[in-house]
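Quick question, first post here. What does this chain look like in 3D?
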Amino acid sequence: MPSTEPSTDRARTAPPTPGAAFAGRTFDAVLFDMDGTLIDSVPAVERCWRRWAAEHDLPGAESFQIEHGTPARSLIARLLPADRVEEAFARILELELEDTDGVTILPGTPEALASLPEDRRAIVTSCTGPLAAVRIRASGLDAPQVVVTADDVTHGKPAPDPFLLGSRRLGVDPARCLVVEDAPAGVAAARAAGCAVLVVAGTHTLAELAGTSPAPDAGAVDLAAVRFTVGPDGITVTDR
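> Answer (accepted):
Ran it through. Tokens below.
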């Protein structure tokens, strides 16, 4: 599997802007990651995982850094013995369901979602179904009808399954989808699914995301810098 870690040599340059990268291109649908892309849940996420790390006696718990964009169960499986994974997963889910303090909508989110018809937009998140519902409610997000969560797939990001399912539920070829992401695991998943990728600076800087392998097509500070326009030939993506 290609590395999703930033390359030292490539991580110095931000990706092209959407207007430059997607000039002359159209898409049939847009698949949005949620945390770090549509909503800001970073403070709550970091509080919960540091508490969880301390409870499980992990070294450096007070400054524990979560790998954003990766399903919780997959991350835990790399940190703890197999016989402790399910209990530990239940605990982090319990913590995150209880802590939604500071979960807010990110700039440009309402406008981006409102600019797209229901059959051309979806959320594809590494959250479980219950956690996605809690954060959507806490943020006040007007979510699309199609929401793909970690509970819907066997293999989460960086595997392509979540985005393949999102495109299938919309009835769209993944090659005609644009994915909006903020984490290397999500970029890798989108690329593996055959989608184009626009990154925003949510949990990673644009320079860090530009240095991932595979690399995104375009980048923007946030969705307030992007305009989605629906026309007879599909969705165009330009700079705002």
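The longest strand covers residues 226-231.
The first helix runs from residue 18 to 21.
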